[in-house]
Amino acid sequence: MRFDVVTLFPELFAPHFTVGVTRRAFETGQVEVKLWPLRDFADDNYRRVDDRPYGGGPGMVMLAEPLERALAALCADRAAPAPVVHFTPTGRRIDQALVQEFAAGSGAVLLCGRYEGIDQRVLDRHVDLELSLGDFVLSGGELPALALLDGVARLQEGVLGDARSHEQDSFSDGLLDCPHYSRPEVLGQGDEARPVPAVLLSGHHADIARWRRQRSLELTARRRPELIAEARSAGRLSPADEKYLASLGL
After folding, report:
1. pLDDT by residue (tens digit) across 17-34?
2. pLDDT value at position 123?
3. Which positions are catalytic?
C-alpha cells in the first residue's frame, strides 16, 4: 500500500519510519510513504503557502494554489487513484475499526493542514474523508497522520513479533484490553508488596483466558460503558459475559 503525505513539515515523519517495531513495515515497503513538501509547490521566491483570510480575523489560511499543484503532482505519480484524507477536529474520530479498514486497503493521500486551516475550496473539491484524533485542537495534521500510519503499520503481516499480538489489543473485539504483568512475581516488599495475580502463574489456560476476559469486561464497563452497549448490540457478548457483568452490577 502507498500513502502520499502533503505537509509543510516532512522532517516530522522521517524519524518515525526508522525506530520501533513498526519500522519493519516501512523498511520492507509493506507500507510505502511518499512525502510531498508543500513549499516545493509555491510559486514565489518566498515559497509562501499561506495568506490572511478573506473577511478578516486572526491567523492565516493555507493557499489553494500550492495545494492544487501538490495534489496534481502526486496524483500523476500514483499508479491508481486513492482517497484524500484531511485531518481536522470536525472529522470522524479515528478508531481501531477505521485503522483496520486502512490496513487492508491500498493506501490514501494524507492532507496535513496548518494555521487556521485550508482554503475550503480545496477541501470541497478533493477531500473524501475527514478524520480527527479527538475533541481537541492540534497545531497541524502531522500528528494524526503519524498516528494513522503507526496503527496501519503494526497490523501488517510480520511486523509484530507475535502475529497474535494485535488480536488482543484494546478495541480488537470492541472492548478494552485486560491488564498485563511480567517479572518480578512480587514487586516491592512488606506492606508495599504487589504480587502478580495467582491465576496467571497457574498454567491453567482456561482459567487464564477466563480471567483475562473478565478483566477486559470489567475495565470496559467501568471506563467505557458505551463500548459494552455497542458490543451487546452487535451480539459480541456471550451468556457468560452477561452473567459476569450482572455480578458486578454493571
Report:
1. 999 999 999 999 999 999
2. 97
3. 89, 116, 154, 169
Q: What is the mean pLDDT of residues 87-98?
A: 95
Q: For residue 137, what pLDDT is reported? A: 93
CA distances from 167 to 1, 90, 141, 161, 241 (A): 21, 30, 28, 13, 19
Neighbours of 119 (CB within 10 A): 21
In order of 34, 106, 169, 172, 195, the CA distances from 4 in angstroms are 5, 11, 27, 27, 48
Order of strands across the sheet with 32-37?
32-37, 2-7, 107-111, 84-93, 129-132
Q: How far apart are CA 12 and CA 32, in angstroms?
A: 16
For residue 184, is the peptide bond before it cis, meaning its omega torsion is within 30 degrees of 0?
yes
Judged against a pLDDT cut of 80, whether residue 168 lies above it is answered with no
Contacts of 245 (CB under 8 A, 6+ apart): 217, 221, 228, 237
Indicate whether 166 pLDDT > 50: no
- DSSP β-bridge partners for residue 86: 111, 130
The answer to whether residues 149 and 31 touch, using CB atoms and an 8 Å cutoff, is yes
| Predicted confidence (pLDDT) at residue 205 exceeds the cutoff of 80 | yes
